[in-house]
# Entry
Amino acid sequence: MSIPTPAERFMVTLNEFLSFQIELFEDLSCENITDPSKGLTSIRPQAVAIAKALVMKYDADTLITAFSWCHQDWNMVKKRNISFVQTMNTKFQENGIPFDISILCIPFVAYDVIKNSDEWKDEDESDLPVNKQDIDVIWKYINSMVGVTCSHISNKRQQDPSYMIEVDLVKYNEMFGFNENT
# Structure
């Protein structure tokens, strides 16, 4: 059995991340909440599933390369700034992946609404449509994608030392606590 390449690991992580997003949209969608007025988005989980299916049709190298072009904004990931998702959306579109993935910001926005709303204040954290643990999981997936992308770039540089030379791997490995073989 061969060891998966970083690009293959990126695809697995991206697939799991998008599947998790679909689950969140099932909880956030007004069609799946007993009281539709408590729905936090009108976007159906099926729309996210379609976006996932379209994105996953791309080959691993195309997707990981598009993600690597977000490197200048990886500090936003470390700071858990949701603007990174919009940056990722722009970079994907600039690199020939013409899908609007900005809907992935919705769980963050919904969580902010929930935690600042009197309507949800008496709910147990685990009963909320999106909670802090869900947001933590999202960031863990994105952190993993950064780490796998650093590993991908490192591997590519072994064959071509000038590959994406503008990406400071030492900086990102230190920032995220990755080792050289992440």
